[in-house]
Design a protein that fits this description.
The chain is mainly β and about 300 residues long. The chain is about 5% helix and about 50% strand. About 40% of the residues are buried.
């Protein structure tokens, strides 16, 4: 199996259960084990069946200066950190910067240091461009994706260990990078049973993410107690449906719409990202009581 960077996998949590706390690891049965990587092909929703996610609700729950910090867990051990930062808006876009790095312990298994930036249209939170720069086990990896949302196309320019390449992808309706998908999901009018379907870039290819909003659940974190929307689904590689991932995302059911935790699969097993701190602009407290919805 080809290796997956922590950044690509953790951000591919696009989408619902813990009753009191998040599960440390899903039950391991044959059907679930197949979801970790390559196995029997998984059916893809058709382009026609994959409806647009719709317009984001306003005002946005985030603003320039918001920082979300996550602890990464792999194989039952702390593996590193992930940080999402909203940068100052420019020329009709708001950049979302993502940084990820493994810790000393996990670097004995896999060393990852990566930065990515998603440029989202301020009007509809669809990405216009996505740039990813990473080093994994001393191998440099670079990718730049340009989205043509009106034409349902995405163009990829990449370098892997110094070797360049290009690809173009046809999108069903909405095309996202992993970070951009999270920020739009924060703004959707979530309701129990609502379907979710979109295409997301990851690891030099395109994945179709489909699932639903399972419902509201209570989540206990070190950061505090939250009521949260649980979104659940699968990410299936469009050009080879034998590759698929089961993914979960929990988003706080309040005005802040914080992405509280994500869970997914990779070749190393179950990987989790758990929110451990957040800070918000205008002096808002970085605690579970944080600020209310921000005008932006």
């Amino acid at each position: 199996m080809r290796r997956r960077t922590l950044l690509a996998l953790v951000l591919l949590f696009a989408l619902a259960a813990p009753a009191q706390t998040l599960p440390k690891q899903p039950a391991q049965d044959p059907a679930r084990a197949a979801a970790i990587g390559r196995g029997a092909p998984m059916a893809l929703p058709t382009n026609a069946a994959c409806a647009s996610l719709g317009a984001p609700q306003k005002p946005y729950a985030f603003a320039t200066g918001e920082v979300l910090e996550y602890e990464l867990d792999a194989m039952g051990a702390t593996a590193g950190t992930l940080k999402l930062r909203v940068l100052p808006k420019r020329a009709g876009v708001v950049p979302i910067e993502v940084t990820a790095q493994t810790n000393t312990f996990f670097s004995k298994v896999r060393r990852v240091k990566a930065t990515a930036t998603s440029y989202l249209s301020t009007s509809d939170l669809r990405p216009t461009r996505y740039v990813e720069d990473a080093v994994e086990n001393e191998v440099p990896k670079f990718a730049e994706v340009t989205f043509q949302q009106d034409r349902h196309l995405a163009d990829l320019d990449y370098k892997y260990a110094g070797r360049p390449g290009k690809r173009q992808f046809k999108l069903a309706k909405d095309g996202f990078d992993p970070a951009g998908a999270i920020y739009l999901l924060r703004q959707l009018p979530l309701r129990e049973g609502a379907p979710i379907c979109f295409d997301a870039y990851g690891i030099r290819t395109m994945w179709r993410v489909s699932g639903k909003v399972v419902g509201k659940e209570h989540v206990s974190l070190k950061l505090g107690e939250f009521d949260a929307w649980h979104l659940q689904g699968n990410a299936v590689r469009i050009d080879d449906p034998r590759w698929h991932r089961e993914i979960h995302l929990w988003v706080s059911a309040d005005d802040r719409r914080l992405p509280l935790a994500a869970l997914g699969m990779m070749d190393l097993g179950v990987v989790r990202a758990t929110l451990v701190s957040f800070s918000r602009p205008e002096g808002a407290a970085s605690s579970k009581k944080g600020a209310n919805s921000l005008k932006w």
